[in-house]
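Need ABC-type maltose transport systems permease component-like protein's 3D structure for a figure. Predict it.
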Amino acid sequence: MNETVTRTLRTLARYTALSVLLAFFSLPLLWLAFAPFDRTPTIAASLPSFTLDNFRHLLGNPGALRSLRNSALLAAGTGTLVVVTAALAAYALSRVRLPGRDALLYVLLLLSSIVTGTAAMVPLFNLAHELRLIDAQLGVILVLGGGLLPSAIFILKDFMDGTPRSYEESARVFGASPLQIVRHVVVPLVRPGLATIGVWSVAQVWGNFLIPFLLLRSPEKSPAAVVMYTFYTEGGQPDLGLIATFSLLYSLPVVLMFLFVSSRYGFRFHGGIKS
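Structure prediction for ABC-type maltose transport systems permease component-like protein:
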C-alpha cells in the first residue's frame, strides 16, 4: 500500500513539475499569438480586444517590410554559401585520406565553439574594413557563413560517410566527372543532411543581431533583427503593438520552413542510405 501511494505521489509530482515548466515556456508564445490582435497590448498575456490596426500600422511602415527582405537576402545568401561549401568540403574530407583529418575536424569544431563571432568581432571588423566590406551585405554573409562552416562540415561529413562508394564507382566507370558524381549521385543521397544544414544556417542568420548591427551602417540595409530595436514611440516607450505584430511575422518564415523540411526529410542525422 505504501509503495502504491509513493509511486502515485511521484507520478503526480512529476506531472505537476512538467505542467509548470510547460506553462512557463508557453506564456511568451501566448503573448506573441494574442498581442498583435490586441487594441492596447501590454506585457501580460491576456485575451485581446480584437483589431487589425496593428497589421495596418506595420504594413504602412516601409522600413519594417524592407528589413524583412534584407533578412531574407542575408539568410538565403549565407545558407547557400554554407550548404554548397560545406557539402564540397565534407565530401573531400570523407573520400580523401589526409594525415590528421579527424584531428583537423575536431580542432575546427572546437575553435568555432570557443572563438565565437562575438569574441572575434574586433579582428573581423578590421578585416571587413581592409576588404572594404563595411556597410556591404556581402561582408555580413561572408562573416556569418565563415562562422557556421566548421559545424556544418562536421555534421555533413557523417552523411557523406554513410553514402555507399559503390554508387560513385559505377558512375565513374561510365565516365562521370567528380562534380557530376557529387551533383547526381552524392547530393540526392545526402539531401536530408543538406536540408538540415540549410534550415540551421537560415535560423542562425535570421536571429543574428550583433554582426549586422556592427557591419551595416545604412538603415535601408539593416535586417529585421536590427530594425526591431527601433520600434519606439515618440515618448521613448516600446511600441508593443508594432513589436508584437512584427515579431509574429518575423518568426513565421523560419517556423514554416522548419515544418516543411521536417515533414519532408525528418531532420535525420544519418546518411541517405542505411545498411
